[in-house]
Amino acid sequence: MIPNSIPRPPHVAQTGEGAQLTSPINFPVGTRRPVLVLLPLPRPTTVPEVLLAAARILQANGLWQGDYFPDAFSRTLTTPHASRPLSIVAAIRCAVTGDPRSETQLADMAVGYVALSLDEEPPAVTPWRLALHVDGWGDVPGRSTDEAVALLERLATAPERAA
Questions:
Q1: 127/108 Cα distance (integer angstroms)
Q2: Is 22 in a helix, a strand, or coil?
Q3: Going by C-beta distance under 8 Å and a sequence separation of 6 or more, which residues neighbour residue 125?
Q4: 20-22/12-14 β-pairing
Q5: What's the pLDDT tens digit per position in 20-70?
């Protein structure tokens, strides 16, 4: 070895059972190759961030009317639930957790903010009733994805417009 040089790592690492683990530099000449690293997107932490993320999800997948998303029991569809058209409530929940069925405090806060921002008053202020109220608004016949996205974006940027 040449003095003051960095030793070259092994081309193939061995495990205890004799299996080989490839290294990012496992080419015969030891040159490096790029390695794709997929990092998860950061989850939103505030209600405006949740609403903007839900708007992006609806914009990409579309608005679903009737239930939270089509084929909830996956009898005919094989696509992930988060890749199907979603209702507004399901898009909000999916933005927070990645699953349109998971309920969290942040998702409930965002759904409540949307419900209380609609023109009509919700019948009762419980998380379940607020979700039904938002779903009722989204289920109006003729309601488009663009209207739902515009509502979420308007509500998410309301504090900025008021300042």
A1: 6
A2: strand
A3: 112, 116
A4: antiparallel
A5: 455 555 555 555 666 777 767 688 889 999 999 999 999 998 898 888 777
